From TrEMBL:
PROSITE patterns: RESPONSE_REGULATORY, SIGMA54_INTERACT_2, SIGMA54_INTERACT_3, SIGMA54_INTERACT_4. SUPFAM superfamilies: CheY-like, Homeodomain-like, P-loop containing nucleoside triphosphate hydrolases. It holds the Pfam family AAA_lid_14. GO terms for biological process: phosphorelay signal transduction system; regulation of DNA-templated transcription. Residues 152-381 form the Sigma-54 factor interaction domain. Keywords: ATP-binding, DNA-binding, Nucleotide-binding, Phosphoprotein, Transcription, Transcription regulation, Two-component regulatory system. This is Sigma-54 dependent transcriptional regulator.
Length: 493
């Protein structure tokens, strides 16, 4: 599909030319129509907006100096309304600041007047090619990237790899060994393997090896006959028998007693077993999936887990990534959990503040998804409102993320103010002499770094809108772009 899409590159395009000079518009139109493009012309900003509302073009050639409004206002309209068309700026008054602002708003290229037919058509061809390739890539992502897979939620590369392993391993009878920290979704993974397999119509029997006493584990797996031991008042089917025709999931398998490990090894090799107290062999047609939150090789080295059993189980290893390594999956999962909890608790929360989202992303989540669920439940139950904010976070999480959880961080770090009166001669007074050992001055940091924090925070609060942030800071947008370039140079030094 992608190969075919790459070959189907558009040779003709619908182009909206926004140019206030009728003579120049006619010249540019002739250049473009010579390449078989369909061209509409707008001589004013209002006419351009009307054309955009009537029919969306593939490409907009936009002059920045229009009689009724700046061309940047047209570009801002396209950006704000997420109109899916490419934009090339054409102007005789170009500058680095204008180009930077135009690119930030989504312009694909920038052409300075005057230009000839070859220059214009080459720019148009390159822009259309870039737009086409972008659409192919987005189509590929929509096809092969999933936010949900059975009970899993996540679009990170780490989880996409997990999904592919599950799909590849599920049709097989091979044993899968799932490893991962507590709360990463090992049982969910076992369920996904079962549902993707040909055994999906059979039973999925889960057994937690850490929750069952060692002297009862054999009976839980293989079953027992009446009178096999004290308390065995009737015959009981074990997990192996109940899972016949389906999948047996052994969770926390590294917790299993060494004596039972040898019996499990024989069962895995032959799929034959004997119930406790019985002398008749049984056979089961099952697929075995195991899981542990420990390092199985370390357990083997420590003598707590049989090496031969490890290699028998570890046919298809499937490591689950911890939540801290899954990036924005944290917010995807949090939003899903919040939606469920709001309905259950009859609350009105509809999302997270920007500061709270940053706090969730900045925390390590040692308890993974299970801890995230507990934190959100705590916030929803104990608070009211429409947005979950940082003051609602549990104390341990606020302590862990430190200053990043402050809803409104101070613009400048708190530091003692040293009052002074300027000397008439212009020489700094002695009171301003700072001794390196003076602890009161330890909080002072470089001015450019504090300025950077103020500007970047303002941009975040304006949802990335630099002109709006600049207006609130009472500076020019071009000043922000220049300062950003300067910060990058400072950090490289």
């Amino acid at each position: 599909m992608t190969q075919r899409a790459l070959k189907e590159r558009p040779r003709q395009a619908r182009i909206l030319l926004v140019e206030d000079s009728p003579a120049m518009a006619a010249v540019y139109q002739s250049y473009l129509e010579a390449e078989q493009h369909s061209v509409r012309v707008a001589g004013t900003g209002a006419a351009a907006l009307s054309e955009l509302n009537e029919a969306l073009p593939d490409l907009v050639l936009l002059d920045l100096h229009l009689p009724d409004m700046p061309g940047m206002a047209i570009l801002q309209h396209i950006h704000d309304h997420a109109l899916h068309c490419a934009v090339v700026i054409i102007t005789a008054h170009g500058s680095l600041d204008i180009a930077s602002e135009a690119m930030r708003l989504g312009a694909s290229d920038f052409v300075s007047k005057p230009f000839d037919a070859a220059r214009l058509n080459l720019t148009v061809a390159n822009t259309l090619e870039k737009r086409h390739l972008s659409r192919v890539v987005n189509q590929y992502r929509r096809t092969f990237t999933r936010n949900r897979f059975h009970g899993f939620i996540g679009s990170s590369l780490a989880m996409q790899a997990v999904f592919r392993i599950i799909e590849s391993a599920a049709p097989s009878k091979a044993t899968v060994f799932i490893t991962g920290e507590s709360g990463t979704g090992k049982e969910l993974c076992a369920e996904a393997i079962h549902q993707e397999s040909p055994r999906r119509k059979g039973p999925l029997v889960a057994l937690n090896c850490a929750a069952i006493p060692a002297d009862l584990m054999e009976s839980e797996i293989f079953g027992h006959v009446k009178g096999a031991f004290t308390g065995a008042v009737s015959q009981r089917e074990g997990a192996a028998s109940r899972a016949d025709g389906g999948t047996l999931f052994l969770d926390e398998v590294c917790e299993m007693d060494l004596d039972l490990q040898s019996k499990l090894l024989r069962f895995i090799q032959s799929r034959r077993y004997t119930r406790v107290g019985d002398n008749k062999e049984q056979q089961a047609d099952i697929r075995i999936v195991c899981a542990t939150n420990r390092d199985p090789l370390e357990e083997v080295r420590a003598g707590r887990f049989r090496e031969d059993l490890y290699y028998r189980l570890n046919v298809i290893p499937l490591p689950l990534p911890p939540l801290r390594e899954r990036g924005d999956d944290i917010l995807l999962i949090a939003e899903h959990l919040l939606e469920t909890m709001v309905e259950e608790e009859q609350k009105s929360f509809r999302g997270f503040s920007e500061a709270a989202a940053d706090a969730l992303l900045g925390y390590d989540w040692p308890g993974n998804v299970r801890e995230l669920e507990n934190v959100l439940r705590n916030m929803v139950v104990l608070n009211e409102g429409t947005l979950l904010d940082t003051p609602m976070l549990p104390a341990h999480l606020q302590t862990s993320v430190g200053a990043t959880v402050s809803a409104v961080p101070p613009a400048l770090p708190a530091a003692p103010v040293v009052p002074y009166a300027p000397a008439v001669t212009g020489e700094p007074p002695a009171a301003l002499t700072i001794q390196p050992e003076d602890q009161a001055m330890a909080g002072i940091r470089p001015l450019w770094l504090q300025e950077k924090e103020i500007i970047e925070r303002s941009i975040r609060l304006c949802d990335g809108n630099i002109p709006r942030a600049a207006a609130l800071l009472e500076i020019s947008p071009s000043t922000i772009y220049r300062k950003r370039m300067g910060w990058e140079k400072m950090q490289e030094q």
